[in-house]
Task: structure prediction
Amino acid sequence: MKDVAHRMARAFEKYGFFIFEGEELQTVQKVLEAAKLSETLRVARLGEVELDLKNVKLKASYYIVTLDLESCLEKCSDGECLRKCVNERKEAVSRSLRELEVPQEVSDLSELLKRLSSRE
Result:
């Protein structure tokens, strides 16, 4: 999950959006919820791609996460204000994604027991 959050942060810094495959949809949703960005950003389905390469058929769905810029459009009357508002939003989202604390998943029951016993 941390690697997806960092990829998203880099994409938002540079482009202001993040495109990903459908396989990552649940992970992206978890990242957005953990970073408290699920209400700030919009997720939309871009579509499917089908490729036939000789004997291999590839099919993938793609999604995009974008900034919600409606408030920027409402408050700004010129290009400079809009550019500043968009850049502030991009930086804030990127910072939230980079600072995301992802709980380490317990891979083994014995590790969980160790953690629980150390809390006593």
